[in-house]
């Protein structure tokens, strides 16, 4: 219980924090050609700063009241039963795959050598947890335009060892969830949705991140909302929720909150493994786990960011539409992005692929934009199998990776995040116009 005196002190501190924010807010005017146009960035106001300071004044440090509030509100936003915070989206992916290796899942547990369907046109930490858990990634190609897995090819990739499908909604564009979930049900496969770039996207009216058995989210500054570092997992399966918690929290069997004892009501009445009867349940370990918890200070920022999420989503959609309308006149030179059928994307970026017969290369246009101080990014790893770290891994490819290789050489994307105002978006379009004049 906070005393009246402490409330007064906090109120003064919060007012000073607001004053500091307003002082910093006086940004330099955007100067075309001189000011940087980022591909992403944090968008916040005094409320995030005040709530962050509020959590610091509690000095709880590890997960606490703000983490509980965020998990509750985030689960409600998605319409799922359980949300679990972790320290990054990459950790969320690791926890998702690791949870499915638990012996507690019986015959459905993933075991070394089992195969997981995925794509090579991916961010590394979507693929890495498959390898780190001694599973075998099976790579499929993607479609240019949506940049998502060729879902109609999945059944061809299945073998007697296939146990799961783990793919991302690329740059916020949902993959074919109808087809993926149909195959998963038919062959009793696990589905993990990497929703790190797609928070707020919908597929046939329903949020992505609510279809698979587990979904993952990232709150890195580039993403739809931020905690600085941070991530989350969502699931409707209470058993999976418990398993994720265990792997996140050192591998322990106990599910008590930090600082709490005896949630199960029989703390000293357990007998597991070859431990003596009555060994303290708080120190019984059922998995080879990690410590991947989030701090309450990170969660405090997320609590305020989540309130802004609807506006952030609308801003991303608006910027994407403006860019699309301004660049579609150059469709003869670029493959334009297209929403997947039935999808309403909460876009992470605006992606373009230079056509084979274009009079310029990806490097030409990217260099021009970068020299104009407009940030660009490649589509993550391009073809992850081309990178040094993956030369010796065990894997299988179904079909060819023709599109993946083409994307690696010819695809880039620019930002649509809500921090890009009208002046910056107009400047981006003007830069494309100037570049294209060289080839008209």
Q: Could you explain the architecture of this structure?
A:
The protein contains twelve helices and 14 strands. By secondary structure, the chain is an alpha/beta fold. The strands form three sheets. It has an eight-stranded mixed sheet with strand order 1-9-8-5-4-2-3-13, sandwiched between helices. A three-stranded antiparallel sheet has the order 7-6-11, with no helix packed on it. Strands 10-12-14 form a three-stranded antiparallel sheet. It has two domains: 54-297, Type I PLP-dependent aspartate aminotransferase-like (Major domain) (Aspartate Aminotransferase, domain 2), CATH 3.40.640.10; 309-437, Alpha-Beta Complex (Aspartate Aminotransferase, domain 1), CATH 3.90.1150.
Q: Briefly, what is this?
A:
The chain contains twelve helices and 14 strands. With 440 residues, the chain is of the alpha/beta class.
Question: What keywords describe this structure?
Answer:
2 domains; alpha/beta; three-stranded antiparallel sheet; Aspartate Aminotransferase, domain 1; 440 residues; 14 strands; eight-stranded mixed sheet; 12 helices; Aspartate Aminotransferase, domain 2
CATH class of the largest domain: Alpha Beta
Series of secondary-structure elements, N-terminal to C-terminal: HHHEHEHEHEHEEEEEHHEEEHEHEH
Mean pLDDT: 96
Distance between the termini: 70 Å
CATH topology group of the largest domain: Aspartate Aminotransferase, domain 2
Quickly count the domains.
Answer: 2
How many strands? 14
What is the share of helical residues?
25-40%
Side by side, the strands of the main sheet go 1-9-8-5-4-2-3-13
**CA-atom Rg in angstroms:** 23 Å
Number of helices: 12
Main beta sheet: strand number and arrangement?
Answer: 8 strands, mixed
Measured by DSSP, the beta-strand proportion falls in 5-15%
């Amino acid at each position: 219980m906070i005393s009246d005196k402490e409330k007064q002190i906090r109120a003064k501190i919060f007012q000073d924090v607001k004053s500091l924010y307003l002082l910093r807010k006086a940004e330099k005017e955007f100067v075309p050609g001189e000011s940087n146009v980022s591909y992403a960035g944090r968008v916040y106001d005094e409320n995030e700063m005040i709530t962050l300071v509020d959590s610091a004044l509690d000095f709880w440090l590890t997960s606490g009241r703000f983490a509980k509030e965020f998990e509750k509100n985030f689960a409600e936003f998605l319409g799922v039963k359980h949300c679990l915070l972790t320290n990054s989206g990459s950790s969320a992916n690791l926890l998702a795959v690791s949870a499915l290796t638990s012996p507690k899942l019986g015959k459905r547990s993933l075991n070394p050598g089992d195969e997981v369907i995925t794509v090579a046109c991916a961010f590394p930490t979507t693929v890495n947890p498959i390898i780190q858990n001694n599973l075998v990634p099976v790579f499929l190609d993607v479609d240019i335009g949506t940049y998502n897995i060729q879902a109609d090819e999945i059944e061809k990739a299945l073998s007697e060892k296939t146990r799961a499908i783990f793919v991302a909604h690329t740059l916020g564009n949902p993959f074919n969830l109808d087809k993926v979930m149909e195959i998963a049900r038919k062959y009793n496969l696990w589905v993990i949705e990497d929703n790190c770039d797609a928070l707020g996207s919908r597929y046939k009216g329903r949020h992505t991140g609510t279809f698979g058995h587990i979904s993952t989210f990232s709150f890195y500054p580039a993403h739809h909302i931020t905690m600085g570092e941070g991530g989350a997992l969502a699931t409707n399966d209470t058993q999976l929720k418990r398993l994720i918690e265990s792997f996140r929290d050192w591998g322990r069997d106990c599910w008590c909150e930090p600082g709490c004892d005896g949630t199960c009501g029989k703390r000293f009445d357990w007998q597991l493994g070859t431990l003596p009867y009555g060994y303290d349940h708080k120190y019984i370990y059922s998995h080879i786990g990690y410590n991947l918890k989030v701090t309450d200070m990170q969660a405090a920022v997320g609590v305020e960011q989540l309130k802004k999420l609807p506006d952030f989503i609308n801003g991303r959609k608006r910027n994407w539409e403006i860019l699309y309308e301004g660049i579609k006149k150059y469709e003869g030179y670029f493959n334009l992005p297209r929403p997947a059928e039935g999808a309403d994307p909460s876009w992470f970026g605006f992606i373009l692929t230079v056509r084979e017969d274009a009079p310029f290369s990806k490097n030409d246009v990217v260099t021009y934009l970068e020299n104009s101080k407009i940030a660009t990014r490649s589509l993550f790893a391009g073809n992850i199998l081309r990178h040094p770290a993956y030369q010796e891994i065990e894997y299988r490819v179904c079909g060819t990776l023709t599109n993946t290789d083409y994307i690696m050489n010819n695809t880039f994307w620019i930002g649509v995040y809500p921090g890009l105002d009208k002046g910056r978006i107009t400047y981006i379009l003007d830069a494309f116009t100037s570049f294209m004049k060289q080839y008209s």
